[in-house]
Design a protein that fits this description.
Strand order of the largest sheet: 2-3-4-1-5
Helix content: 55-70%
Radius of gyration: 23 Å
Number of helices: 17
Structural class: alpha/beta
Number of strands: 5
Length: about 350
């Protein structure tokens, strides 16, 4: 007998299940119904990557909205750390330089995306953006190009503090933002930038925290300076705490922009019910009846589901791992439904 599978615990490898069985949690609805929240914080396994994927699909369904995804690999972030030597490893200078550079990178990526649209050349400020894009259209990722920009902008300045000013002078951000806003208004388009995997290559030192803080600040700046743009950053809670502790102004200034992912028993039950229906084809609507259709004995009902939850940290990933293993245990005994012994065996792996 084939075991029931509730999907892969890695969201990027679970597109079909996400597309057809995604549970629209209160956190998800908050993000699509309001643009106030721009920093999504949560532990590993709470569904940040799933939100990253589903939000991208949601916004792409609007033909007037462009979506840009930035998810750096570990080697990109590690290479970016080398630029911190330009600022003697000082947290404040690293944050300021990264904030300016990443803000510029976001604006250029938006301009690059718009330049492929039919109506772009009809905008009055399009020639200005095209001129700026000449240097941006080079091989490499966003982070690679950001690193080269910071190195180039500071090449002729020996004073570490003056290097931050040199970056601002070289990038001319106000001019760029003004042109981009005019083009977006002319084209009647909006842009959403989704930023994930900032934990790749992260180290909890002055350089690592300064880079992440700069990324976050630049992402918030994007919306503050343009009514047509929004960035959403997905961040592990331990990194968020490190940034908030190091940057005394961070939590005070950005607290209202933070959304902490939270799961309660009812929401997790709905997540699993959606996946069970997708995996089994069952048409029952009531959540607890869906659960009862694949369980037996003491696992049935609300108390049975709560028994499973007690073996997790109330994270979707934990529950998926537990139940997928339990279904494999049941299938090995030629059973369709799982029982307490299957859960016990799964929990002891």
């Amino acid at each position: 007998m084939a075991a029931i599978s509730l999907g892969d615990v890695r969201a990027e490898h679970d597109r079909s299940m996400l597309r057809e069985a995604f549970f629209e949690s209160a956190d998800y609805k908050t993000l699509i119904e309001s643009d106030i929240k721009s920093i999504v914080v949560g532990r590993r396994g709470v569904g940040k990557s799933a939100l990253f994927i589903r939000l991208g699909e949601y916004y792409e369904a609007n033909e007037r909205t462009d979506v840009i995804r930035i998810a750096p690999d570990e080697h990109e972030v590690l290479a970016l750390r080398a630029i911190t030597q330009l600022f003697d490893g000082q947290f404040g200078l690293i944050r300021a330089a990264t904030r300016l550079g990443f803000r510029f990178a976001l604006l250029m990526e938006i301009a690059l995306g718009l330049s492929t649209k039919f109506k772009f050349n009809q905008a009055a400020q399009a020639p200005v953006l095209l001129k700026r894009l000449q240097a941006w259209r080079t091989p490499g990722t966003v982070i690679d190009k950001l690193r080269h920009i910071l190195i180039k902008a500071t090449a002729n300045e020996s004073n570490v503090e003056a290097r931050v000013g040199a970056i601002a002078d070289d990038l001319k951000l106000n001019e760029l933002e003004s042109c981009l806003n005019d083009v977006l208004e002319s084209m009647k388009r909006k842009v959403v930038v989704l930023i994930d995997k900032l934990d790749e290559g992260y180290k909890p030192d002055e350089a690592g925290i300064g880079i992440v803080d700069g990324f976050i600040q630049a992402s918030v700046d994007l919306h503050d300076h343009s009514p047509y743009c929004r960035a959403i950053v997905f961040l592990r809670d331990n990194i968020y705490r490190a940034v908030a502790q190091k940057d005394q102004d961070f939590s005070r200034n950005l607290e209202q922009a933070v959304l902490r992912i939270h799961w309660d028993e009812r929401s997790l039950q709905n997540v699993m019910a959606n996946r069970i229906k997708k995996a089994t084809g069952i048409k029952v609507e009531k959540t607890i009846k869906v659960w009862d259709s694949v369980t037996q004995g003491t696992l049935q009902g609300e108390s049975g589901f709560h028994t499973c939850l007690r073996l997790t940290l109330y994270r979707p990933r934990d529950l998926l791992l537990l139940l997928n293993d339990a279904f494999r245990n049941a299938a090995a005994s030629d059973r369709y439904a799982i029982e307490q012994a299957d859960i016990n065996a799964s929990a002891n792996v």
